[in-house]
Design goal:
This protein has 259 residues and is an all-alpha fold. Helix content is 69%, strand content 0%. The chain has 13 helices and no strands. Helix 5 crosses helix 10 and helix 10 packs antiparallel against helix 11. The longest helix is centred in the N-terminal third of the chain and has 18 residues.
Length: 259
């Protein structure tokens, strides 16, 4: 998606040229220019946000542009896979089909090489390990300790499935994967607790305030001001502009860190 926006090719440029020009100037003349994200990470977070926003047509247009800009088929598939535990398979499946269609049209042979690094025997332990990298060991321990007995299975699912089945995959490094998760949650809406938790998670894995702010900046044209401003409030709480943005976040929102 280099240069002018390629999300809205064809008819809208003819029927609504003023709106498309305004959007292009803002999305590329201002927000991308302001952001320090490299092209790869920008494409990753924007594609994730389009999945969460259920923008299938725009996702397809962006996907072709992302391939042209150097995002690999494996990276693209991992974006879709990472969305599943957050938006649910019911919302992700159409994007998976669309991804497969676009990749096939570009001559990519499917299935792609597997990226799983776990087995049924190791997924739970490996999931807890990466969960502790993101949430912190004390935070994970609190989640298990505070969950009622009849909800313990959900905590186990969270560790083994959300983190063990998805975060342990290769194809995207952990820092990029955590930025992707934050982008999905911001675009999804109604997940402020999880946004707060993953702002803290990003800080824990080395994505400082400036990186998170860059992500929110490039998402703004696609997710709108209300969701962006809500996420900025979470960022300001966790890593104020006048504080050390790389400092470890407090434990005050342990309950919201779980996903």
């Amino acid at each position: 998606m280099t240069g002018k926006n390629k999300l809205f090719p064809g008819t809208l440029a003819v029927t609504d040229p003023e709106l498309i020009e305004v959007f292009d100037n803002f999305a590329f003349g201002e927000t991308v220019a302001r952001s320090g994200l490299d092209t790869r990470r920008r494409l990753v977070v924007q594609l994730g946000a389009l999945i969460a926003a259920q923008s299938l047509g725009q996702y397809r247009s962006a996907l072709g542009a992302a391939l042209a800009d150097g995002l690999t088929p494996v990276e693209i598939k991992e974006i879709v896979y990472q969305s599943v535990p957050y938006v649910g398979m019911a919302k992700a499946v159409d994007f998976l089909h669309e991804t497969n269609d676009v990749l096939t049209e570009h001559g990519v042979e499917l299935p792609l090489p597997g990226q799983s690094t776990t087995t049924p025997e190791t997924r739970a332990a490996d999931g807890v390990a990466v969960q502790k990298q993101i949430v912190g060991s004390a935070g994970v321990d609190r989640l298990y300790a505070s969950a009622p007995d009849d909800e313990q299975h959900i905590q186990r699912y969270l560790s083994a499935n959300c983190f063990g089945d998805y975060y342990t995959r290769s194809g995207l490094d952990l820092r990029t994967r955590e930025l992707l998760t934050l982008s999905i949650l911001v675009a999804l809406g109604g997940a402020d607790g999880q946004v707060r938790g993953h702002v803290m998670g990003n800080l824990n894995v080395g994505n400082d305030r400036s990186v998170i702010l860059d992500v929110l900046t490039v998402l703004l044209p696609y997710v709108g001001y209300p969701r962006t401003l809500n996420a900025l409030r979470m960022l300001d709480d966790a890593a104020p502009a006048d504080a050390d943005a790389t400092a470890q976040p407090s434990s005050s929102a342990a309950k919201s860190e779980q996903a």
